Amino acid sequence: xxxxxxxxxxxxxxxxxxxxxxxxxxxxxxxxxxxxxxxxxxxxxxxxxxxxxxxxxxxxxxxxxxxxxxxxxxxxxxxxxxxxxxxxxxxxxxxxxxxxxxxxxxxxxxxxxxxxxxxxxxxxxxxxxxxxxxxxxxxxxxxxxxxxxxxxxxxxxxxxxxxxxxxxxxxxxxxxxxxxxxxxxxxxxxxxxxxx
Amino acid sequence: xxxxxxxxxxxxxxxxxxxxxxxxxxxxxxxxxxxxxxxxxxxxxxxxxxxxxxxxxxxxxxxxxxxxxxxxxxxxxxxxxxxxxxxxxxxxxxxxxxxxxxxxxxxxxxxxxxxxxxxxxxxxxxxxxxxxxxxxxxxxxxxxxxxxxxxxxxxxxxxxxxxxxxxxxxxxxxxxxxxxxxxxxxxxxxxxxxxx
DNA sequence: CAACTATGCAACAAAATGTTCTATAAGATC
DNA sequence: GATCTTATAGAACATTTTGTTGCATAGTTG
Lengths: 196, 196
Hints:
- The structure is a homodimer.
- Chain A is mostly helical.
- The first copy, chain A, folds into two domains: 3-66, Arc Repressor Mutant, subunit A, CATH 1.10.10; 80-189, Tetracycline Repressor, domain 2, CATH 1.10.357.10.
- Helices cover 71% and strands 0% of the residues of chain A.
- Chain A has helices at 7-26, 34-41, 45-51, 55-66, 80-97, 99-111, 115-141, 151-169, 175-189.
- Chain A starts with 6 loop residues before the first helix and ends in a 7-residue tail after the last helix.
- Chains A and B meet through helix 6, helix 7, helix 8 and helix 9 of A and helix 6, helix 7, helix 8 and helix 9 of B.
- Chain A binds a DNA duplex through residues 1, 3, 6-9, 12, 33-35, 43-47, 49-50, 53-55.
């Protein structure tokens, strides 16, 4: 029997990582240690050391397992402005109100030195970009898009600014701001004649 | 005589923080400890503990003292496109080639839980935004700007995307990309009739 | 049931972290 | 220059965190 299939092993692992994530998001990555996870779960320290010989492994596993941004289902009903409002409204809410807002900065920092964390967060972002792309493609098929709309750049702008405002600039993310942001995006995206 | 004015105290402090910064940017914040700084400088551990009773204080001081983004002098000669090219080119270089690119993520992560780090990085960003504002104001005075240009949003977009590409999306920051980025910004900023 | 293996517990080892005391040397005061 | 003050180096020590190991127990597999 392989270790990785033993139900006890799996159960311990899941329990530990859930607790690790809880600690991670209520305090910080640094607060995640074998000792703190043991205290939180009742799992003995020695068992945790058998699963993760070093703290960094434990922290990274906790991060990679559950620290992913909420997936936002792309809405492509149109019009573009409404779709953007839906997508970016959810992104905004995710940054403001879910653990992701607290966890993202620590993942970003980890990604600077750790390849696994880097490819994880890069992957998340590529996915979000792809979702956004489908929104713009739908708009194009509806004939809403300006023929020369710089879609790639617009998508980057759409997503980057909320992250930057929240994590770096420390500015509020609210619907007042979002309206203006979307308005600006649409000015470049929409065909001059299109309904606004 | 006050402690904070004693030249020996100042010298020790400077030496220690310089070393701390060096360790910080060549390894990580976590590598900054009283022991590592002592080894790097020859300052005795007990002295370091007198200056910074706890590691976090030492780490934070190192961060706040020297971890600031390179200041980019605003260029406002015009035309706007050239000014943007100058400013964003330097920002790009700073992110790609100076310690700031490695340090920023760790500051952002620290800012999520520490008020001092937060206000420091928020302050840096507000400064950069202000610089960018002077660029746009100069363009306006030259009559380049579209009357309804959403300057606030444009500035946010201009700055946010490079940070996001580098730190979150893991995409390259190069002149190929920058040209398109600036082109897109100018389309929204410039008066329809203005020279491009 | 028999063989295997993950767990809990306790004892231990090692390293990181923090404290305190003393002698010395550098700076400040007169 | 003599004296008082204060920061430092160094060492000894206490504490906490981190990691290891051996063994009895209990759950899992065949």
